[in-house]
Amino acid sequence: MSEEQLYGQRRRSRAGRGFSWVLALIVALVGLSFFIPTNYYVTRPGSAIELGPMIDVEGGKKDETGAFMLTTVRMGEANLAWYVYANLSPDAELMPKELVVSKGEDNEDFVRREQAVMDNSQKIAEAVAFRLAGYEVKVEKEGVWVMGTLDGLPAKKVLKIGDIITAVDGVRTAEAKDLLQALASKKAGDQVEITYTRDGQEAKTVVTLVPLPESKSVGIGVRPDNKQQIFIPKKVTIASQGIGGPSAGLMMALEILDQLDTAKDLTKGYKIAGTGTISLDGTVGRIGGINHKVIAADKAGAEIFFAPQDTPDATSNYQEALATAKRIGTSMQIVPVKNVADAIAYLDGRKPKSS
């Protein structure tokens, strides 16, 4: 071998070793990125789940031709790798951690809150569906639902997400406005006795009122919501383990109504997905991550997607859903709804799907 050939071989060998070191370094950095936390959560398309197998209404019937589906968003803490991915992909979004988990809360608090609002959404969906089917539904105000506790304030030490405040100094607090009224005449340093229930057990605690952040009033530091007891004439079982949040309310109401109405098939044979919170009057409300839900529904083969028409302009959930549908090129029909009745009217106007 000539000197030039030997030199060329050594040069290629050094270049090969250099490339191997660079490749090893890249692999190491990529691997390390999965262990470097960020101050963000990442959201991306979840799944579309048929509600028929999940919901059972006593004496009801289930369709075999079509299906109602709830849609989900996949969410998790973003490490550096997910942070980079979310900045490159149109199908992933970053959310500041403080918008997901309040200061002082942990993931357990987040899960408890999401499960609590899912439970409430289920009960409201049942009430709406039974009323639409012509049944009498009784609603009793149960108390003030603790949906969060503020870091550094008195409630943080004694109350948990999901607790229900039923009285202040022995005076019943049937809803959130009653709690505010009970504390309105108090001042910082005053002590009040809070009666609450946790997992069905009543308890009492005494807390000292403090000034609330960014407010002239005093309080205990909770994020309140209204909790009501709903009585329906038939048993409804909903197996939603692992699914949290309020956004399945619309679709659960439609599935329950479909099972109650044994005379017709509300689905008309279509695969129908959608999303939206629900109120006792049937109003459908705005949700987050609707772009991810449209993608999940499309992947599951849905033909119709109900989206909340929460505002009359381009910022509505409906317009967001339309934009995503156009971007991914789906043939799925995006339908705006302001009330459960809108969804029912749309389906009543459809011809049954031909087999």
Description of the structure:
The structure is a single chain. With 355 residues, the chain is an alpha+beta fold. It folds into 3 domains: 3-32; 38-137 and 232-348, Ribosomal Protein S5, domain 2 (2-Layer Sandwich), CATH 3.30.230; 138-229, Roll (Pdz3 Domain). The protein is built from 10 helices and 18 strands. The chain has helices at 3-33, 80-88, 97-100, 107-132, 155-158, 176-184, 249-260, 290-299, 317-328, 340-348; strands at 37-50, 55-57, 67-79, 93-96, 138-149, 164-168, 171-172, 191-198, 201-208, 210-211, 218-219, 222-231, 236-238, 271-274, 277-278, 284-285, 304-308, 333-337. Strands 4-1-3-14-17-18 form a 6-stranded mixed beta sheet, with helices on both faces. Strand 17, helix 9 and strand 18 form a beta-alpha-beta unit. Helix 4 (107-132) runs parallel beside helix 7 (249-260). It is globular, with a radius of gyration of 26 Å. The relative contact order is 0.15. The mean pLDDT is 87. It is an enzyme of class 3 (hydrolase). GO terms for molecular function: ATP binding; ATP-dependent peptidase activity; serine-type endopeptidase activity. Keywords: Hydrolase, Membrane, Protease, Serine protease, Transmembrane, Transmembrane helix. One of its GO terms (biological process) is proteolysis. Belongs to the peptidase S16 family.
